[in-house]
User: Fold Cryptochrome DASH from Anditalea andensis.
Amino acid sequence: MRTSIIWFKTDLRLYDNETLYRAQEQSDEIIPVYCLDDAHFIKTEFGFQKTGTYRAKFLLACLLDLDKRLRNIGSGLIVVKGKPEEEIPKIAKAYNAQRVYAKKEVAYEEKKAAEKVEKALWEIKCSLEVYSTSTLYHAQDLPFPINEIPDIFTNFRKQVESDSFIRPVFPSPAHLDSPPIPDLVLPLLGDLGLEDAKVDKRQAMDFKGGESEAVLRMQQYFFERKAISSYKQTRNGMIGDLYSTKFSPYLSAGCLSPRGIYHQLKIYEEQYGANDSTYWLVFELMWRDYFRFMMKKYHNRFFQQNGIKSKDHHIASHNQELLETWINGKTGDDFVDANMLELKLSGYMSNRGRQNVASYLVHDLNLDWRYGAAYFEQQLVDYDVCSNWGNWAYQAGVGNDPRGKRKFNTQKQAEEYDSEGKYRKLWLKKR
Assistant:
């Protein structure tokens, strides 16, 4: 009996999940497992929770949905809490599993955690098999090795578009052979050291976790509302659920894969036509790929204040009082404050808002950009380690921006993107 564990992480889906596909292909029995890593629920060196309330609630909903989808095909999800290097081998021993299948990691802490699990598994004669499941373009299909990827996105994009290809998707399994899986038991937010937060009715969208909700959102945005056909014109909006795809939380948790989105986009284009807007979604997915490949190239340098730049880069000092004015929307800059209040009270912010508040923290307040990145890590429902730290380094002038420091004139931005002041009125008014 070939018994294997599939260790779900940020790939909480059945469709286009190579890890799941290979596990089923090479095993007689599958035990699906998710580990709530204790390290994800601590305070970071910057004083913030590594996982805040909004993302934790979203994650728990994703796990509940994944369990339901697995039980529909004869399996189920075991959720454990603790250190993965202890919990995963413990389950492997209990079920006499010979292999553990998991997604491949590229970020520093995630790689270290996987290495600890692999070492612990070897001690019980169990192997760890990993697969890349998070990108549109597979790393093996790039026209250059990882250490030679261009440090300028445009150069990367042009070469990849001309010399690479997007692989087909993996189908969802129709059935999984599993031993009896116990009923799902999920912790409460309090068990994770978090407090619940009230839902703010001003939020751009009520993000409900899970692959089922992700598929519904994609169906609505593409085929019901046909909003993708005007995406390039609306993507800098700031109010409501249709100015952008709102796929990012589902991508970050792995409820959707970039290739899954691309596949549906191609179906949409066949029915309703391709244009600049449909291309722009692929363009944005390539940016997401790029930050992941950059993290793979530069390892932990994206978490240092100098980023991937030289050591003589200006080092900003920390000022807790100024940082808290930024966090609490009390800087006196109404555009920045409105965006920061949206983030604080909903766990989300538009792309336009993110660029402006990051620029303000770095260039107007002259603070260490890593505190901003760490606060986003705590707050964002769609936090993705590569995109978050890559974008913050970019904005701080220590990442992949060829122009160096890029300072936003926030009042000019407000006039352009919130000309009637509707967004600012929405978030600055008293509840």
